[in-house]
Amino acid sequence: MIVTLLVIGLLIFQVIFIYNRLIRLRNNAREGWSGIDVQLKRRADLVPNLVTTVKGYATHEKQLLEEITTLRNQSIAGQTVPDQAKTASELGRSLKRLMVIAEAYPDLKADKNFLKLQEQLSEIENYLQKSRRYYNGTVRELNIKIESFPSNLIARLFGFAKFDFFALTDESDRMVPEINLN
Fold this sequence. Notes:
By secondary structure, the chain is mainly alpha-helical. It has helices spanning 2-57, 62-76, 81-102, 106-110, 112-147, 151-157. It has one domain (26-36, 43-166). The chain is rod-shaped.
């Protein structure tokens, strides 16, 4: 009788332990997503200032500036993680193209406002990279726990679902840039 009660007590303790671990991992993943969301919002808030500054110098780059504005608006709309990753990736590529175009305008490159915006954008991209790594790490841990025995039984019982990774959606983002020093 006592052995049965001890076994039942041990099983209940194990269920509680696994459940609490799943809760902690899910909250860590949500926190990680919040960090990405904050950085994407910071970048989206910076884009109009950047577009306005460049617009004064590069008037014939209207198509790219409109594309950036459209992507910026999409990035602040509520989306799933894969959709958000795709939009963020596209916006990042467009902003890189904008920086390349800016190289052709010496007055723009020397503009203090543009330099400050460029520095802020670089800082945001660094924070965004760190946030993505943190989020993906917490999602990995949560997903492993959801798929592993015996925690998968508890996860299924209490309705825990796997999270999506924040992944690159364009293979060109994975390619090493070609450097020409000539």
